[in-house]
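Query protein
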Amino acid sequence: MSLSDRIAANLPYLRRYARALTGSQKNGDAIVTATLEAALADDELKASLAGGRVPLYRAFNAVWSSACMEYEGAPVGASGLESAANLRLESITPRNRQALLLTTLEDFSPAQAADIMGLDSTEVEALVDEAVQEIDRESATSVLIIEDEPLISMQLEDLVTSLGHEICGTAATRTQAREVIAERTPGLVLADIQLADGSSGIDAVDDILETGNVPVIFITAYPERLLTGDRPEPTYLVTKPFQERTVRAAISQALFFGSSNPIG
């Protein structure tokens, strides 16, 4: 496999990570682009990317770290959503969030995350612990689960309630999701994209978003259907089969930014 093919295979997931880290599709993609431009300008860096995901994320981290600034309120001209996200960023340390995402959403080991961040494993584990403590301070909300596999739906229900949230409804089809939101607007949605009657979880989510801006996490065995670049891509996308810690991290991130869409 050529170097360009290796990078291309990992690029959708690096973009997903960048969006989750920054809360912004625009900003996340800009840092990914800057990372690739840096590699083109540095033969040694470019050659290192043949090593796979770890060196690619390490290169991204170097660019992100140089661009990451302390958040002191909303920047001039920020939208209401961006302003709210920037204020929330004051309460959660960026490096804690990075360590958590690397070891959960991206499924790196603590040692790999340490390599990416330029730390040692114990430091990464400490950052993750701090992130979890910060996440635990997030407010509880009501959750709608759109999932047609009963066992997976039950697993998600147990996970959500263990985090202190309540279930406002479950749905296996788009029609059932409509029935739930007709009674109550959820504070968070966990959605599969392929539902029991052949309907689409994407369409079900679109129905919900017509009623307001609700954080959404897609949990699917078909991530490539959402990582096409043809439409705004979801910030929060978990691939099946999933690990519970990955879903936990996605929930905290979605509630942290309080939005169903990337900012920017």
